[in-house]
Amino acid sequence: MADFDTAATPGFDGGKADAAELQAERSARLAELQEMLYANWKAAGDHRSVLLVLQGMDAAGKGGIVKHVVGAVNPMGVRYTAFGRPTEEELAHHFLWRIRRALPPAGHIGVFDRSHYEDVLIVRVHNLVPPEVWEPRYDEINAFERELVDAGTTLVKVAMFISLGRQKEQLLERLDDPTKHWKYNPGDVDERQHWPRYQEAYQAMLERTSTEYAPWHMLPADRRWYGRLAVTELLIAALEALGLSWPPADFDVEAERKRLLTT
Ligand code: AMP
Ligand code: MG
């Protein structure tokens, strides 16, 4: 992670303007595939689903991915959940309890804005529970994700990385713009003090929970437009791998046409 270039745009030669054009085209493709996933569940009982897991420091751009990438598809087929500080009730349960309750139903794309990984990130950095408790969570998470994949959920795990300097710019932008004050949290400034420990926690997360069945994608997120394009491509790839097509009618189309025309 120390060598990771958060301003890079791997796999894309163009700039922001070229990205906008491609984004429109690829968003349309994503929307089509999502509708196909939904249609196959609705019309043919296909039980599969996709789960996008977004992790990243404050102002890394998770909200922008939700707004612009997920926002390009039909909300009917999306199950979105943001995970903040656990409630009393959630804390009284195993850390995966609230996660299980938010899993996408068949035919849907689930979106986790933060996730079970907070339980090995902020929890580890701030010692919210002792190491004996968070340490075994890496293996628990791997077992949990294995279970999800075996049950037909494709995981798309995206860790978004911005530089400390870029984060400062983003937070300043929030302060400078009254329409963005709602996104600003004074605590985010304090978290900046813990940057090295977060880097360490992210490194451990990547090393211990990137599996062959649910790999992590490290996303250079300094350039917003690149992140959107990249996540769009990751979702398209995940959906294309399902080999979907439009479900055939389970009725006689011609007979139905005749019947309808006589009404
Ligand atoms: P935001 O995503 O800006 O709404 O912030 C949500 C906050 O909740 C972040 O500071 C997260 O680190 C924190 N959070 C999320 N999950 C947990 C958790 N399991 N334990 C403690 N804090 C968490
Ligand atoms: Mg925040």
From TrEMBL:
Tagged with keyword Secreted: no
Any GO MF annotation of the entry: polyphosphate kinase activity
The Polyphosphate kinase-2-related domain, residue ranges: 25-240
SUPFAM superfamilies attached to this UniProt entry: P-loop containing nucleoside triphosphate hydrolases (SSF52540)
GO-annotated biological processes: polyphosphate metabolic process
Keyword terms, alphabetized: Kinase, Transferase
Pfam families: PPK2
InterPro entries named in the record: P-loop_NTPase (IPR027417), Polyphosphate_phosphotransfera (IPR016898), PPK2-rel_1 (IPR022300), PPK2-related (IPR022488)
Protein name: Polyphosphate kinase 2 family protein
